[in-house]
Each structure stands twice: as C-alpha cells, then as structure tokens.
Amino acid sequence: MVTADHLRRIAAWSRELNEREIERARAGVVEKTFKANEFICMRGDHFEYWIGVVTGLVRIGSVSRDGKAVSYTGLTAGAWFGEGTVLKNEARRYDVEALRDTRLAILDRTTFFWLFENSVVFNRFLVRSLNERLGQFIALLEYGRMLDATARLARSIASLFNPILYPDVTRHLEITQEEIGAISGISRQNANRCLKTLEQQGLLRLEYGGVTVVDLERLRRYGD
Q1: Would the pTM of this model clear 0.90, i.e. be above it?
Q2: What is the enclosing helix (H) or strand (E) of 180?
Q3: Which CATH number fits domain 4-134: 2.60.120.10, 1.20.1250.20, 3.40.640.10, 3.20.20.70?
Q4: CATH class assigned to 149-221
C-alpha cells in the first residue's frame, strides 16, 4: 500500500478523488521494479492490473510470428495504460517491455472496478485517456504508412508530450537515442540521423542524456 500523498504524486487521476476514494485507491496500489529489457507482460498474458509508470521508460509493441518487431508507443513517467484490457477482462494484445530500469505502480482489478463504479472523477479521467489513446493509435496507423523515418520519429517524440496522457511532462525528456529509435521502430543509427535533422531545423535540442523540445507544434505536424 502507498500513502495518499505518494499516490497523488505518481497518479494524476487520483488528485481530485475524495477522501473515501483515495483511501480505497491507495489500498489497491503496489509498486514493482523491472530491469532494463525485462518484459512486464507479453501478448496473450492475463495481466489483470492497471499500470502506471513511476520512473523509467516502457515500450508497447508486438512481434510477429516471423520475428518482425513493431513498436506502437513509448510510455514515460506519469503514464497509466491498459485500462481497455482491464475493462474487457481479456488477454493483453501487445508486449510491454521496460527499456531501462523502470518502477511501476500496479492497481488491482478489484479496486479499478470499484473506482469505475463509484467515482465520477475517475470515470472522467478514463474517458479522456481512452479518447486520447484512440487518437494516438489512429495517428500511428496513418503516419506509419505515409511518412518517412524523420517524420515518424518526430511524431513519436511529440506523442510523449500529450498533456492528457502525461500531465506532468516538461519540455525536457530524459531519453537516449537508442530508446527513441526503439519506440519509433527504427535503428539507433537512423534515429541519430533523424534527430540531427530535427535539431538543424530548430524543432529540438540534443543534450546529454536526453532531448529538449523547442517547437512542439511543428513536431506534431512534421511531414504534413
């Protein structure tokens, strides 16, 4: 069990809960640490928890039968995901992998449904999140088919600055070029080349251990 103050720090959805709701929520949360490159859950697993990223970086993707890997998105601190799978009580349709040492908050399914059935604030958060996630994956399908590598990388970085999915994010992102490549579905070498192109165009700044976004709107529209 985590404290109420700690839960509010790591989970934006908890900040407007009333005292009864916050007590129920914190009783259902535990934290767990995963090593870099460790799978948190795999496609087909019945992992009956709602998951939040406390620290670290997570990649959602899948691997085809012939070994082709596809990256859907990356998740940084503050992101909560998997609500659709919990609501439908189905097996995971994707792999979830820690790209670096990562600490997760895990909310059990019983508590999730108690909040779902009793908290208007919680339901509003879920609706906003599901709407944003749907838009994100529609965009992923579009630019995966229509845009070149630089544009796909630009959109992948921009997706990590969604204020609904990542409410506490700043313009600086602690992430390596290899990790950016992993969540964009391209090699580290191609990621390096694309990042330099975006830096030359004034959209971001490459810094030690991360990137700082200079023009988020242009990143979001890059390739249009």
Answers
A1: no
A2: helix 177-184
A3: 2.60.120.10
A4: mainly alpha
What lies within 8 Å, CB to CB, of 55 at 6+ separation is: 77, 102, 103
DSSP labels, 2-70: --HHHHHHH-GGGTT--HHHHHHHHHTEEEEEE-TT-EEE-TT----EEEEEEESEEEEEEE-TTS-EE
What is residue 145's three-state secondary structure? helix
95 Cβ contact list (under 8 Å, min separation 6): 39, 41, 42, 43, 60, 61, 62, 63
Residue 158 neighbours by CB distance under 10 Å: 20
Q: Which two tokens stand for residue 65?
A: 């039968």
34 with 102: CB under 8 angstroms? yes
Distance CA 76, CA 59 (A): 9
DSSP 224: -
E strand or H helix at 210, and its extent?
strand 210-213
pLDDT digits (tens, 9 = 90+) for 15-57: 999 999 999 999 999 999 999 999 999 999 988 899 999 999 9
